[in-house]
Specification:
Largest sheet: 2 strands, antiparallel
Structural class: mainly alpha
Oligomer: single chain
Strand content: under 5%
Number of strands: 2
Length: 82
């Protein structure tokens, strides 16, 4: 029976996490939820896309290009390591 208690506790925790996640996006109470701040200054924009465009033009940082570069570097490192 001891194993059942552990499984039940895990199931309860998982159910609570799922409920919390469902509630997170459904509330709509905070209008600030859709806003995004620049990665480099305190400017706040109505969308993530606008914040990323600002960072690319004002700060010369393209998050998508940086992400692609990091993935490419990781891929190259994986090839070299094998």
């Amino acid at each position: 029976m001891g194993g059942d208690d552990g499984d039940s506790s895990h199931s309860d925790a998982t159910s609570q996490q799922e409920e919390d996640w469902d509630d997170w996006g459904a509330s709509g109470e905070d209008a600030d939820d859709d806003k995004a701040q620049s990665l480099f200054d305190n400017t706040v924009f109505p969308s993530i896309e606008q914040a990323l465009t600002h960072d690319a033009t004002v700060h010369q940082f393209d998050l998508a290009a940086y992400h692609a570069q990091v993935l490419h570097t990781a891929w190259l490192n994986e090839i070299v390591d094998t």
